[in-house]
């Protein structure tokens, strides 16, 4: 019977460990998290492990090649409690695999997105996102007295709708 086990990887070597295990014919998986940030005024997308330094491995519970996994480059060892390796439910693995891209709520809206502003000057006012204004602020178009006015607002005061 095949079971999923939790293994610890060496720091930032999840992809290396997964590739090395797959080269040995062992099924391995780790979910990735996609985040979007502003770096020097530019939008950047970064892919990281959802669970840093951990990987899921599928092996036969009785005849699995546990020593091959332990000796694979990038692997630190199995997570264990006493003499038992940590099992992970197939249901959890299926759920993680079905979520194709785990994304954080986008921190930065795209040009033209409708957002709401809530700060000392504006209380739940709708605006249109125009562009970033440095790392911590954004320029929005707010409709005041039937005119669109450009306003620079702290990113923490913007909420996407």
From TrEMBL:
| Assigned keywords, A-Z | Transcription, Transcription antitermination, Transcription regulation
Highest rank taxon of the organism? Bacteria
Q: Does the keyword Transcription apply?
A: yes
Taking the record's annotation, the residue ranges forming a coiled coil are none
Q: Where is the NusG-like N-terminal domain?
A: 1-100
**Keyword set includes Hydrolase:** no
Name of the molecule in the record: Transcription/translation regulatory transformer protein RfaH
């Amino acid at each position: 019977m095949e079971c999923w086990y939790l293994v610890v990887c060496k720091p930032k070597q999840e992809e290396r460990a997964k590739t090395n295990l797959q080269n040995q014919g062992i099924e391995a998986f780790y979910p990735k998290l996609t985040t979007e940030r502003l770096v020097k005024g530019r939008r950047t997308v970064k892919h990281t492990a959802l669970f840093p330094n951990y990987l899921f491995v599928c092996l036969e519970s009785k005849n699995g090649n546990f020593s091959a996994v332990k000796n694979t480059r990038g692997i630190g060892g199995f997570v264990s409690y006493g003499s038992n390796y940590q099992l992970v439910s197939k249901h959890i693995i299926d759920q993680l695999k079905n979520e194709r891209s785990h994304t954080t709520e986008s921190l930065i809206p795209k040009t033209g997105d409708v957002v709401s502003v809530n700060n000392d000057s504006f209380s739940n006012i709708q605006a249109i996102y125009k562009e970033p204004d440095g790392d911590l602020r954004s320029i929005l178009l707010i409709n005041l007295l039937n005119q669109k006015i450009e306003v620079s607002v702290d990113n923490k005061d913007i909420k996407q709708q």
